[in-house]
Design goal:
The chain is an alpha+beta fold. It has 6 helices and 4 strands, in the order αααααββββα. The protein has a 4-stranded antiparallel beta sheet, with helices on both faces.
Amino acid sequence: MEAAWLHRARWRWRGALLWPTFVIAVVADALIAHRWPTTGDAESLGAGLLVGLICSLLAVVLCSRPLGMLLRFVRTDMPAAVARNYAGTFAVGLVTAAILSLGLVHHASIARSAARLHEAVARAVAYIGFYAPAEFRVNARQTDTFVIQPDAIYRVCVPGRNDGRWYCVVVKPALPVARSVIPAGSEPNALLAQGTN
């Protein structure tokens, strides 16, 4: 009787990984999502914590029993509760790995978008500095950019000296430099943005 109790206690101790791992993984998920958001440009720690908590709970509820059964098929000496615990721990680890992978992939797309925006503004500044009237060339570095189509079409404007007028161009950075910038009127981007809201 004593030997059986010790055997069960040993298995329970070895299998008591799920909830400590769960807590650590949820905190890690929040930090990962804050550093490398899976969607958008930024994610708060609270939002990352909530996403990690919900995804990890779902993984434990949905995956621990079937994965535990699969583990017991391989390790027949393992008690069912311990197998479920191991399987749940594995599922929680997979959630953290998925959040990290998605965040890194999305971070790469954010970096590409930022580089494309920087390129569009540089082309606009060069065009305005060369072709715009003198009153706008002076302010060529004071750009106001409106994203018409992400990674494809941008509208860049610079103000005049003091009269409230603007000089605007549309930039398509995917095109060759000579054809990528065209004049686009004198309405400020703030006015254009009101029409899109």
